[in-house]
Specification:
This protein is α/β, with parallel strands linked by helices and about 325 residues long.
């Protein structure tokens, strides 16, 4: 006689709901747990004709990495963690994952058209470097898409983005509270939507602390450690008098500028306080350790995959934008 789902749950000492999710190949439990339940079900002689379907995979997903200039989307721990989060969540949901990288150039449309004919059920677009002018191709996709790390209101697609305004605002308020002086801004020389939103948070903090936005010095630096270092080194050589503290668009800019300040004889944080954004691992190992804004990178990736999975199986689609919270990591650079 075949074992029932209820009896199977009792044997495994788990809920009947978990057994049902595994038997029907639905999300909600880990891949490892699902394998254990199915293995026990087969061992106990469960009648799989009771469930409507049982298949190994529930779809295929394309992770499209859009590189406009490559100055921001590069081989850094930030994007490595995003990729790991997507990979792990796809594995848990039994989704095949295909990776595509598209580079801006004369053949961009041809690269994108090749993706259109991939055998996929949905797409996650890493849109960090995308601008409005890059969106035309995405307006009429044959499958659902979720934009990751950028949101465009002109497209009816879902998006998972960082609360950049709140993160920058919190970091700048911390600088002001610690130094009691007008902070400066180490701003990326490359414009992307995340950095523009961080600028909004910076100036919001300046205004709400009763300071003048026009009195905060702004230095445009390359968004990489070496680039920011060389740019700041050149500014200091020209006679720049640094502000008492700085907020940087990302950790790479903060770390590069900090190195230039220290080589010029300034003490961090006694002379200059510095706060970054992204919470890259390197920030915890430099001296002094970098105060920064933590972004839950793997959680963002998981949210994007889970949302795409919902869209792929939904009868009706209502686009949503998911704003992921951030938190300030206080270390020794402020």
């Amino acid at each position: 006689m075949s074992i029932t789902a209820k009896e199977l749950a009792r044997r495994l000492n788990i809920s009947e709901a978990a057994v049902s999710l595994a038997l029907n190949n639905k999300p909600g439990i880990s891949q490892q747990r699902k394998k254990e339940i199915l293995a026990e079900a087969e061992k106990a002689g469960y009648d799989f004709t009771r469930v409507k379907h049982r298949r190994q995979l529930t779809g295929s997903v394309c992770f499209l990495i859009y590189r406009k200039h490559g100055a921001v989307v590069s081989d850094t721990p930030f994007f490595a963690e995003l990729y790991e989060g997507i990979q792990e969540t796809c594995r848990e949901l039994d989704l095949k994952l295909r990776i595509r990288t598209v580079y801006e150039g004369d053949d961009t449309r041809e690269q994108l058209e090749a993706v259109r004919y991939d055998d996929v059920s949905g797409m996650i677009v890493l849109a960090t470097e995308m601008q409005k002018e890059d969106l035309n191709w995405f307006s009429n996709l044959p499958f659902p898409a979720v934009f990751l790390d950028a949101c465009f209101l002109s497209l009816p697609h879902d998006a998972v983005v960082i609360d950049n305004v709140q993160g920058a605002y919190t970091a700048v308020c911390h600088l002001i509270q610690k130094t009691r002086k007008q902070p400066g801004y180490l701003r990326s020389s490359y414009s992307i939507s995340n950095f523009e939103e961080r600028a909004d948070g910076f100036y919001k903090a300046i205004r709400e602390n009763g300071l003048s936005t026009g009195k905060s010095p702004v230095h445009r630096l390359t968004p990489s450690v070496e680039g920011a270092y060389e740019d700041m080194k050149a500014l200091l050589k020209e006679g720049l008098e640094p502000a008492r503290s700085y907020f940087a668009d990302n950790d790479l800019i903060a770390i590069g500028a900090m190195r230039a300040f220290q080589e010029a004889g300034y003490d961090v944080p006694e002379d200059i306080g510095i706060a970054g954004f992204d919470n890259l691992p390197i920030g915890n190992y430099i001296k002094p350790a970098l105060t920064t804004v933590n972004v839950p990178k793997k959680a963002m990736a998981a949210l994007a995959v889970n949302r795409l999975r919902e869209i792929m199986t939904a009868k009706q689609h209502v686009p949503v934008r998911i704003l992921t919270g951030v938190s300030l990591i206080r270390r020794d650079s402020v």
